[in-house]
Sequence to fold (978 residues):
Amino acid sequence: MEFLLEIKVEEMPLAHVRTALEDMSEKLKKELASARISCDGLRRFSTTRRLILTADLAAGQADRDELITGPPKAAAFAADGTPTPAALGFARSKGVDVSQLQVVTTEKGEYVGVRKAVKGRSAADILAETLPSIITSLSFPKMMRWGMGSLRFSRPIRGLLCLLDGNTVSFSLDGLVSGNRTTGHKLHAPEDIEVRSFEEYRAKLRERFVVVDADERKASILRQIAALVEPVKAEMYPDPALLDKLANDVESPFVVMGSFPDYFLQLPLEVLSTAMREGQKLFSVIRSGKQLPLFLGVADVVGDPKGFIRTGHERVLKARLADARFFWDQDLKAGFKKRAPRLKQVLFQEKLGSYEDKAARLEKIVAYLCWKVETCKSARELAAAAVLCKVDLVTDMVREFPALQGTMGGLYAKAEGFPPPVVRAVAEHYLPVSADDPSPASLEGAILSLADKLDSIVGVIGIGVQTTGSSDPFGLRRNAQGVCKIVLDKKFSLPFDRLVEKVISVYGDKIKRPKAEILDQLREFFSGRLRYLLEREGIRYDLINAALGAGMDDLYRVALRARALDVLKAGPQFEPLILMAKRVNNILAGQTAPAVNPDHFVEKAEKELYATFTIIKENVGPMIAKGDFVQAQKIVFRLQPALNAFFEKVMVMAEEPKLRKNRLALLQTIHKMLLRIADYAQVVVEGEKTGK
Amino acid sequence: MSLQRLILNLHHFWAGQGCDLAPTYDVEVGAGTMTPDTFFRVLGPRPWRTAYVQPARRPTDGRYGDNPNRVQKHHQYQVIIKPSPADIQSVYVRSLGACGIDLHDHDLRFDEDDWESPTIGAWGVGWQVMLDGLEVSQFTYFQQAGGLEVSPIPVEITYGLERLEMFIEGKDDIYDLQWSDDVTYRDLRLDEERQFSDYNFNRATVKTLRSQFASSEKEAKMLVEKRLPLPAYDQCLKCSHLFNLLDARGAISVTERVKMIAQIRTLVAQVARVFVAPDSPAEGAA
Fold:
């Protein structure tokens, strides 16, 4: 039968709506499954003011026949068949007449028992019981309380509608009681309405200016936009994130198109689109890649017959663009490069100094990076970009539109005639902002971005600021993730410790924590971010552990090791090698051994293993050096038969200490070589237990 | 239509909702949130309903009367209701109707915008209310003030009076607004904007401001020790305004800025703790 749940809330942000629907569906399915209630065709709908689930549920649990066993037959009946007090007592305790007892044969012998029908509970009862705890268990990145403030949620909950087969499922939550009523559009149809089914709910809300399906609202927005731009032969500049936000934020989407005076088109595109997107949430309109003096806005109304909404947006936008133009003119007049000294007035971090200090460090770090990255031929341009990249922080435009940092730097540098590599590096040095964001397209941008992020991370951790999940004021996680992403995208092979030490040395006496301590923390910190990116590539967590276990020598090489394991994991030679490596590991645990002495080998199998190993070691070295870990592993696979024979025929823990030490030494050298490719012991293998 | 009419309409509406109409506070503040009628009312368990007009001074926003939208002093209409009522959103919507706005012709939106004031250790969850793309109010459920969790939860509604009136009158220039039927905003405020812009940016004596900041801070510390949170808080507000003036004079260095904000925040947190302490004379009297 049909289940319908609507949680009415005050306007929830899109991200919260998404996680709420996701978590709620998963939890409901789980609860119903454990209550043995079938649940089919679960569907989710939402607006910023409603979370909606509907599904087809079984009416209730199936009735069951339950067999309850009592005392043994011998104790229950006398020889003549009359029931004993034990039988009478058992029957009474189960509420049946003694004549209803039956004999049951079990493994332990014959017993008396009684068969009773147990009525299944109704789905409505189970829903009423579980829904409140499901709703209160939902969690959001930022939670709030309201009113008397006992419940924590994303935004205040203002109504509950819950139906099963047309009947109200009644439960209470934080003073609210669920019912069969809801309301339409906040402004245009706020009256209560009663519903009995999802179809009726959906239809009645549609009449009352609410479209419950976000995809339908999105399609409607796009359709209306197409109809508006088609006559002027233009198109909307695509902005999927804004479209999703607006489709969430309105219940009754209505698109308005308005215009702004032509003379604002002198402003750079980036400035125009930011001024439109932020604040008013407007789309830009373009024709063959060129901005037109038009905008598209999405309102939560039925129409705009008097044009108030369009003219309102036009008035606000005009004021914003007038401000933007004022800032642009002022900034150009004030000059860009010559304002660099003003960075002295902008604090980066209290103990680490101003942005002027940062720029000076960046100059040194990009020089080092450019020297380390073979393809880098633009040391001079990078030095210039390092000095300029933060100057836009003191421009009026960035103070007004912080999202334009970097972008404005690039535009102002260009206006002042700096060469393209400098302009690109400045413009791109904040990228990537998130894991889904692209890395800088230019090599210069990538290097400057790496330098900036490493400088922040090493500096802030260097002075002992601790970051936790909830407190990361300098965005160190995001920065570290950016570093990993750039290194992977640009295939930069950089020695990790040396790089960190370089940045520490650039800070001079500002960083007082011991170098080793900082390095330890940073290896750990970066492993976490790198792991996240590699998991996104679909690599198994244990393979990532194995790659990281071989050492945090170089972020790019860790990734190459993990990817090699991922490529080879399905092959027939993989598992035997892992098991063998684990065995080597186990034997070596806690043992120390001197260097191998080939003269001390006596058994054929150990001599052969040593010979095979020597050849493999020679072959594998160059592969490791050039980062071809797939090839390196393939070579190492050849060690497996010799190792196998060794374990079968040779007693490692020999009585004779000289023999024993030498055999352990051999395994130790092998272990060391393997560890340059991966810490195989961390790979999880099916049937691992039998292998041991 | 005039700003005065708007204020009267809001007064009438919120008084009808059981709010006491508090007088404007007489110490300079950057926002209505900072006045004692909000700061102290949101702390502690007692229910409150308060509404008032508060001038908000932001020296760095001064434009010598040349900018149609930016001024160093604007006016906020502040409403505080604790605990927040279940129907507060629709009450707010009705208040716009009471101001003469026919919402059937307009797009009213609650757009995610959480609010935070590090200086007074306060944050809340809420929205900026957009009317045809213009931000006319801030709507916030307080969660913390003075570094303390608040309970029950107050709702704060702050109307930007000039913005709202520009919307109602359909004007593009703040100085063209009517204050009353025969007095314009220009008549009342233009000179003030010019003179204060000059004072804030050019004339204020930095040395004097600094010594006033130090005196107010000292006074606040003394009053916290004497367990007099209300006068102590006035001194915190003075510090905050002096800081804003120094900032407008471009007199604050990087490290100093962080230090001064931290100084005020620490004082405000102490004030809040004294205020809610069980033996506090202030809470007893309140």
Remarks:
- The longest strand of chain B covers residues 134-145.
- Chain B has a mean pLDDT of 94.
- Residues 204 and 249 of chain B are 7 Å apart (CA to CA).
- The interface with chain A takes residues 68-69, 83-86, 89-90, 93, 103-112, 114, 124-125, 127, 130-135, 141, 143, 151-153, 155, 167, 170, 172, 253-255, 257-258 of chain B (CB under 8 Å).
